[in-house]
Amino acid sequence: MTKTALWVAHVDVTDADAYARYAALATGAIADHGGIFLARGGAVETLEGPVRPRNVVARFPSMQAAHDCYYSDAYQAALRHAEGAATRELSIIEEL
């Protein structure tokens, strides 16, 4: 049985307009790879590590789907809008 995977992103947005363009384009790319959002920019309490006020969690059908989404042409086009518009950490994590 293939395990699902999560994208977990911690973001500090520095250019809201550019980042909004990224988010709009990324939404479609993520959906095209079977991703669904579980959390997206809601309330957060940082207990350890750097404060990143925007946090996003998306579930994908597999590690491969999450990986393929990140490297897809559509996501890479979206990502260009995030460059210089935010400080981010993004990981893919296999679910139990």
Automatic annotation (TrEMBL):
Going by the entry's taxonomy, the superkingdom of the source organism is recorded as Bacteria
Q: Which SUPFAM superfamilies match?
A: Dimeric alpha+beta barrel (SSF54909)
Q: Which residues form the signal peptide?
A: none
Which organism is the protein's source? Loktanella fryxellensis
- Put simply, this protein is called Uncharacterized conserved protein, DUF1330 family
Listed InterPro entries: Dimeric_a/b-barrel (IPR011008), DUF1330 (IPR010753)
Where's the DUF1330 domain?
Answer: 4-95
